[in-house]
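Listing S7. Sequence submitted for prediction.
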Amino acid sequence: MVLDTGKGTGRTLDDLVKSAHRVGSAVETVIEGKAQAVRVALTVLLAEGHLLIEDVPGVGKTMLAKTLARSTDCTVRRIQFTPDLLPSDITGVSAYNQERREFEFKPGPIFANIVVGDEINRASPKTQSALLECMEERQVTVDGQTYPLAPPFMVIATQNPIEMEGTYPLPEAQRDRFTARISMGYPSGEAELAMMDSHGSFSPLEALEPVASAADMQELIAAVRKVHVAAPLKEYVISLVTATRTSPELRLGASPRATLHLLRASRAWAALDGRDFVIPDDVQSLAMPVLAHRLLPSTEALGARRLPEQVLPAIVERVPLPTLR
């Protein structure tokens, strides 16, 4: 299959997908037994989105983000979020140059291809809001001057869901800007045993070599945009999102931004399977990671201890599948 990426390279989708699979395989040499989490992370990158990794400490959240960055030969910056972190510590600041007698912009760590935000919920709401423009518009505005962020650009944020002291919950507006949310989970016994062998004497991350360039990722992202989505499938995506808005168990359903994110992620998921068209299984596979973190349960659902993660599968099962010709 040949998809025009607009760059005139003539590379087929199969060639590009092989590059993506090499990245996934490289990440899995460091992150043991988490093939699904790795695939979702790669899907979000190709869908030009951002990823929220929510789990308990020590399960490899930051390691996954750093490994994905190193395997793609992209520039990566890590931001350790703390309560005293300022917005200018993220975006950068204009400083006065005495030699030139003018202000010059000093870029912050947000100016990288992949930005790892560690423990994002430890920062104050003011600092968290500094990421909103960066994530949605891929630009930074400082002192009235706008600076574009070079593609590919992806924010991978981690947060601890159980430690509440000294943390600030992410507002809905910011959670909505994350294309997907995943949980790493504890490794299986076999994976943990393999981890003891591979991580016991040295860090496999240090030995990891890039298997694809940032240019490869850009070309694959361009190819993913060309993946075909039939009209009935677009209507199916809308039906899924609308069902979350009308469910009595949810007081906040998915936004129109969620509709676009689900569509883009489905294109990337299909491309990773070597297809230039989307099928209903692609949408269903991504409904949980793409939609669940945007939903808020109703008071009755909370009383029954039914979180969006328990409500969403029933909604997906209830919405009829599209008829494709």
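Caption to Listing S7: primary sequence and predicted structure tokens for the chain studied. The mean pLDDT is 86. The domain at 228-325 is CATH 1.10.8.80 (Helicase, Ruva Protein; domain 3).
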